[in-house]
Target: Fasciclin-like arabinogalactan protein 2
Amino acid sequence: MRRLWDILAIVGVLVVLAGSVPATLAATHTYNITKILADHPEFSTFNHYLSATRLAGEINRRRTITVLAVDNSAMAPLLAKHLTLESLRNVLRLHILADYYGAKKLHQLTGGSAVASSMFQATGDAPGTSGYVNITDHRAGKVTFIAQDAGDSTAPASFVKSVKEMPYDLSVIEINAVLTSPEAEAPVPPPAPVNLTDLMSKKGCKAFADLLLADPDVEKTFDATVDGGLTVFCPGDAAVKAFMPKFKNLTAEGKASLLLYHGVPVYYSIQMLKSNNGAVNTLATDGTSKSFNYTVQNDGEVVTLKTKIVTATIKSTIIDQDPVAVFVVDKVLEPRELFKVAVDVSAPAPAPVAKKHKTAKGTASPPAPAGPEEAPADEKASDNAARRSGGKWVVAAVATVAAVAAVGVY
Ligand SMILES: *[C@@H]1O[C@H](CO)[C@@H](O)[C@H](O)[C@H]1NC(C)=O
Ligand SMILES: *[C@@H]1O[C@H](CO)[C@@H](O)[C@H](O)[C@H]1NC(C)=O
Ligand SMILES: *[C@@H]1O[C@H](CO)[C@@H](O)[C@H](O)[C@H]1NC(C)=O
Ligand SMILES: *[C@@H]1O[C@H](CO)[C@@H](O)[C@H](O)[C@H]1NC(C)=O
Ligand SMILES: *[C@@H]1O[C@H](CO)[C@@H](O)[C@H](O)[C@H]1NC(C)=O
Model:
């Protein structure tokens, strides 16, 4: 085990030193379950409900999982029960196993059986053993699945075929019937409506909440995103106060972008943030240029957000309840699209080994030993951005310059 961690640590260091392009949060992310299933129209209902219940996003963010898909006719009896979306979600969670089971492994189970924990179990909503799935490898090659608390009248579902195997990240298996249990189908109280600005005001982000309330369009954007998943990093009152002179200097559009920059249209629990590093897009991100992003980076229990301008640290949690999380951060997040890059003297200097500074035009200067210094490319970028009144419409050319400049910093 020790050795494995050592190797992982070395690999991690090499990746960082190589100055690689930042990965999307959920590091090695390479799959999209919606797309995978879209190639198989017989799973369109199952696929539809993975999206409707927001489980598709969770699947894409996880590694080492198995999805037990059922075809449209097998979905029919489940839909006939007219469960609420929240209960349906729990039933579907039974179909997402927290381990990798390819066809081969299923047909070679040690001792002929296994107990797999499902995403239902992982939510903590599943009482007792109801979140576990029994897998049995019978003689003659038949493999069956049943929710551990399924009840006596329930027949197990059988393995039909392997749909997609990406060892050892994702396996998609077809089974011939849905897995369910009374616990999974139990009514789930609908989540209490969340008033973001109210919550923030009461828990240390009043100044930020007031800025949101002062711009109804922006506030609406935050509110409208909650249902589909939202993570807000709200700067604490002291941070906002210190930032106000700079905020007042922004155009109306720049102000809106700055506020939207603090919202990420995906629900990230603190656990997810602590276990994944990578770039995230924000409510201010322009769809085509993918601008207005930052990097989530954790160091043990500490989670930081790195824009090219500042590094903020998560200080506390206001709410962390799927589909919405609000975390207090110690700095206002300044996007490079609106502010000039100054080298952060408090940041540890990158190790000299294997660090290549490209000399092509437009690249950043090496990190300065001390004192704030502006990287010419980014200055140009932010000036351009400012001239376009700092909004979401930073043109591709500017984004390119900024991206090239970024290479030297990573
Ligand atoms: C996944 O694929 C679907 C269908 O192709 C697409 O609509 C969706 O935007 C994709 N999701 C991501 C996160 O790329
Ligand atoms: C699942 O397996 C456990 C232990 O292996 C067993 O006690 C339980 O009865 C099984 N449940 C079903 C529904 O087969
Ligand atoms: C949240 O509460 C504030 C008052 O604190 C109110 O102005 C705002 O409209 C509320 N937002 C929603 C979405 O209800
Ligand atoms: C506001 O903008 C002016 C003009 O660009 C600049 O001189 C000043 O330093 C800015 N103030 C702050 C606090 O950024
Ligand atoms: C982050 O934004 C920059 C523009 O500011 C863009 O060039 C880059 O591709 C974006 N990164 C990601 C991972 O979307």
